[in-house]
Give the backbone structure.
Amino acid sequence: MISTSTSTPGAQLDADPSWANWLTRWPGIALAFLWGFAEGTLFFILPDVPLSLAAMLRPRRALIHLAAIVAGALLAGAVMFSWAAHGPAARHAVAEVPLVTPAMFERAESDYRQFGIWAASMGPVRGIPYKVYAVEAPEHSRLWPFLLVTIPARIWRLLVVWLGFAGAGLLLRKLGRVSLAPAVHALFWIVVYVIYWAKVK
């Protein structure tokens, strides 16, 4: 019997990692939501990390991850705002998070005085975590206005990250080197956090 299977000249030279489906489907989306919540409370690694890897592998599906991260951040913002409204314990807890410094609270207060409730949108520009603005917010806003501002405040940076990594993933696909995506992704974030660590310390 003659085999009818033939190799296609235009076949993909380099395949996605075997775990890509896990990351870019519902387990990865659930992870994005939990990571968005964790980073909005007391975790210190940005949810941009899983979002960016998903964007390199499946850019359209990664938009769902982006929405899940924002939803997690909204829940985190509500928790931290409510906690801070009942006393200083929330602020003290956030002050103990790695890479959070006293100067960040001072800058957040200055932003609230200058920009009002929109101060939270300055976090990515300042390199100040959202959680810092959340625990400072009760002195300047009620809960619901703060949460409404949280949506655009979180989305704009995540969209920039999504666009950048979706473009990087597209380039790797055109070069037939998509299997390099995890290494490129890891190298980028290691460099970012080394620089950030040096800056805040």
Residues 143-174 form the longest helix (32 residues).
